[in-house]
Structures are given as structure tokens and as C-alpha cells.
Design brief:
330 residues, alpha/beta, eight-stranded mixed beta sheet, four-stranded antiparallel beta sheet, 12 strands, 32% helix
């Protein structure tokens, strides 16, 4: 699982302590040392006492996944469960599948559905600039979709009910997965993803939508972390991975490789306008079926990824309930 810092040899003149980049969740020094000061210690896999979900890590080369198996799998071993491929947030630069908040949420979701979950531990920027996180997540989804991916997946997973889900930067990655040609081509062969759940997705763009600030300086400030994580971004903040509604990018919304889409936003999250616009754009691109295949949920009075910080609150539980209903819908 990801480390919270990387070390570099001291220069001897004190310049190694000079901070070159500061984003709060990640700090980079002149020496090359990287710190993630807000990252909590990782949580080991195993049996979760609160939910009864069992988890274990599988190393897959440059990346890994954490698998979650609910108790219902043991109670009815022949029954097949929906599969949720979960991608954590953290601005592409922080957090982990083993972060306490992510681990707890996936345990809760796996138990509530119930579902077999595959949580992706992708490589982080700046040590591994984008597209590393996209590449790792795509490889993890393909690994999951392979019939012999893992004994748990083979024995308990329903490959006809595979969902991608994620929060913030992870939701951004989920969009990337759903429109990737390799996954779209699978859909054309009848192996379509059942759905995508984008929780408080991190999208941006040069032009403001809804109540976003329109001043160019504010637009640029909103894109700083993205451009840091993806220094080779085509089109800057209008790279189609960051702005799915950019000119030339929007047509892909109609070809998403999933039957249904759910977008969750929060009233006090500055990204909510972009999430709402994304849901509307997907519905419009789908034409007549759009209104029935795209679901938008707004949580009032809360901010970005509030459920990570207040997992026992009524609003977090309500959001989980809506996601469970989405996963279990016919």
C-alpha cells in the first residue's frame, strides 16, 4: 500500500528543506522529498468486526487491489454477488485503498449491498505522474473482468453485474474507465458494465458552469493540482479526462460502457455544479433513454466527501442506501 512520504538524500546546504509545491494534502521539497501530512496510517486488511466483511490484498505488479467479501458469500456460496470496482479519491496525489475512511466505506458498502468489492491501490503523483493512476485503474478493471482473476472473484462475483464507483479523483477515474475504448469495445460485445457511481466527482474546465467562479485566475487556481499531477495534460484544464464536457470530448458521453450512471453531489461542495452539469450532459447524450438511466443525488448541508468524516451520520447512511438501491436495481 502507498507510503505517506518519500525520502531524498540531504544536500548539506539546507536547501533540501525548501518547499517547491504545497497543496495541503501533498508537499514537495527541493530535494525531491514528498510528504502527505494529512494522510492517516493505513489500515491492514482482515475481518471487519462491524460488518463481518473479510478483506485481503492482492499485489499485481506496479499496483494492487484490496478485495472485500461479505458474510453472505459464506452463507450462500453458490450465489453470485455484484462486483464493485472502487477507486479512492485524494487528488491523484494522496490517500490509499488502505486509508481508514476508504477502508471503512468499502466495508460498509460491500456489506450493505451485499457485493464483492475490488478497491484499487493505484500509484500516486508526483512520484508517478498521470496517467499512472488511470493506467493502474484500467488494469485493475480488466483484471476483475477476466474470468480467472482471483478465486474470490471467480467463485462469488457476477461478471454480468460489474460496477465502477469512486469519490472525487476516483470518480474522475471512473468516468475515464467508462469511456475507455477497451471497455467500450467490451460493451459492444455484450459485456457492458452494469453501472457507474461517481461520488462528488472532480471535474473542472476553463469555462465556469452553474455557480462556479468565472474569473480566469479562479479557474486557473482550481486546476493547479490537476496540472501538477498531470503535467502532460492535453488542453490543460480542458483535457477530456478533467473536463468531459469540453468541446470535442462530450460525444464520448453517449458511448459510456455502462447501462446506468449515478452522480452524487453535496450542497456545500464547490465541485457540485460540475457534477450536476456532468449528469445532465450524460443524460442528454443518451437521448431518449437518458432520463431513466442517469440518477443525480444531492445531499443538503454537507461538503466534499462528508461521509468519510461523518460515516455514522444520517446523511451518510442515506447516501449509502441510495447507492445500494442503484446497485441492486434490475
Amino acid at each position: 500500500m502507498a507510503s505517506n512520504s518519500t525520502a531524498a538524500a540531504p544536500s548539506g546546504d539546507g536547501s533540501a528543506d525548501e518547499v517547491l509545491h504545497e497543496f495541503g494534502i501533498v508537499r514537495v521539497y527541493k530535494s525531491g522529498r514528498v510528504e502527505r501530512p494529512l494522510a492517516a496510517p493505513p489500515v491492514a486488511p482482515g475481518l471487519d468486526a462491524a460488518t463481518g466483511v473479510e478483506s485481503r490484498d492482492v499485489q499485481l505488479g506496479a499496483y494492487s487491489v484490496r478485495l472485500y467479501l461479505p458474510t453472505s458469500a459464506a452463507a450462500a456460496p453458490s450465489a453470485k454477488l455484484p462486483i464493485i470496482v472502487y477507486v479512492h479519491g485524494g487528488g491523484f496525489v494522496a490517500e490509499s485503498a488502505a486509508s481508514p475512511g476508504c477502508h471503512r466505506f468499502v466495508n460498509t458498502l460491500a456489506a450493505a449491498c451485499p457485493a464483492l468489492a475490488v478497491s484499487v491501490e493505484y500509484r500516486l503523483a508526483p512520484e508517478h505522474p498521470l496517467p499512472a493512476a488511470y493506467d493502474d485503474s484500467l488494469a485493475a478493471l480488466k483484471w476483475t473482468l477476466s474470468a480467472a482473476a482471483d478465486p474470490w472473484v471467480a467463485a462469488h462475483g457476477d461478471l454480468g453485474r460489474v460496477f465502477v464507483a469512486g469519490d472525487s479523483a476516483g470518480a474522475n477515474i471512473c468516468h475515464y474507465l467508462a469511456v475507455h475504448p477497451d471497455i467500450v469495445n467490451n460493451a459492444a460485445d455484450g459485456r457492458r458494465l452494469k453501472g457507474a457511481v461517481l461520488i462528488h466527482p472532480w471535474f473542472w474546465g476553463s469555462e465556469a458552469v452553474g455557480g462556479e467562479p468565472s474569473h480566469p485566475a479562479a479557474r486557473a487556481m482550481g486546476a493547479r493540482l490537476w496540472l501538477f499531477a498531470c503535467p502532460g495534460a492535453d488542453g490543460g484544464m480542458d483535457d477530456p479526462r478533467m473536463n468531459p464536457m469540453a468541446p470535442g470530448a462530450a460525444p464520448a458521453l453517449g458511448a459510456m460502457a455502462c447501462e446506468r450512471v449515478m452522480v452524487c453531489v453535496a450542497e456545500h461542495d464547490f465541485l457540485k455544479w460540475r457534477g450536476q452539469a456532468y449528469a445532465e450532459a450524460v443524460a442528454a447524450a443518451r437521448g431518449a433513454e437518458g432520463s431513466g438511466s442517469v440518477e443525480l443525488m444531492e445531499t443538503e448541508g454537507e461538503g466534499h466527501v462528508f461521509y468519510v468524516f461523518k460515516p455514522d451520520g444520517d446523511k451518510a447512511k442515506a447516501m449509502v442506501d441510495r447507492i445500494v438501491s442503484f446497485v441492486n436495481a434490475p
